[in-house]
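Look at a sample.

——
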Amino acid sequence: MKYLSLKIAEISQQPGDNLVIKFEKTAAPVEYLAGQFLTFIFNINNKEIRRSYSLFSSPGTDEVLSIAVKLVENGEISRHLHHKTRVGDVLTAVAPNGIFTYLPYQNIQRTVFLFAAGVGITPIFSIMKTALLEENESKIILVYSNRSVADALFYEEIQDWERRYPERLKVIYFFSDAKNIMMARLNKFMIEQIVVENMEFDPQQALFYTCGPIDYMVNCRIVLLSLKYSIDQIKRETYYIPEDEQDEDDTTEKKVADKNTYKVILDWKQNTYEIEVPYYKRILEVALDQNINIPYSCTGGICSTCTSTCVSGGVRMDYNEVLTDDEIEKGRVLLCTGHPTANNTRIIIG
């Protein structure tokens, strides 16, 4: 995996308990796609911890790499970044990654719907800017939900972009404190209305991006599927929520029927490793404990970095926001949330 050393050039407090961090330009340009994230590596009390944060900068501009970090109560890394990080500090990160991406086409005619809630606006903002700058005819509909104007990250910047592209960008806000109850919370009927009223080009060419809490994205996807849009047109990204910042040393027993320890065989970079994985540990955990440096980023089943193929045996996953049913049927698994279900389970990394 490629690692980056990123020096902090600017830190600023933003609405909604968010912190914006901008990095100095690197000697060699860092290539990335709109919607991708950086995974940062921290060493806290001699323990390696990784956290992923979406880039809100756009590869279609000369912007420096920039992320937003929401302060999470009891969140070890978010508190560290908010309270202990300073301009001039150097952070180590894995090269940009993620499949929640937008590929611009200069003269394509399509309608792009961007649904964002809370800090989920971060990768959506990158996608919005990229589409506006690198395409000439696409129409962008941004649907942005938050508690209030005062809590809305990038509110002023988004308004500025709407003024710059009045014919191509339309922003629809939902604020919990809105006096008009219909504009307080995004619901099934509003999603349907927004899509129907703003679909300018061929519906089969439309794209839908959703980023926010899981329930929010599930609601969007269910409605869009009911409107007969294909699953391939609907993209989703999950950002870190408080549950993801839990104590990673917590090995409280989960209610699982199978409490066996199974041998797992890992094929990685022309090497073969054998590990014993107890039921309460994930495959990635045990591999890292044994200094097997396999690729990973989020450790929460949301980024796809550790996706591998199970060729024999079986793997159950605690959580999966990445793999489709078809991929799972073909043996694709996530090691960060995966547990073996049979002895001699064999996995090809990557």
Notes: Residues 121-134 form the longest helix (14 residues). Residues 55 and 289 are 30 Å apart (CA to CA). The first strand starts at residue 3 and ends at 14. The two ends are 12 Å apart (CA to CA).
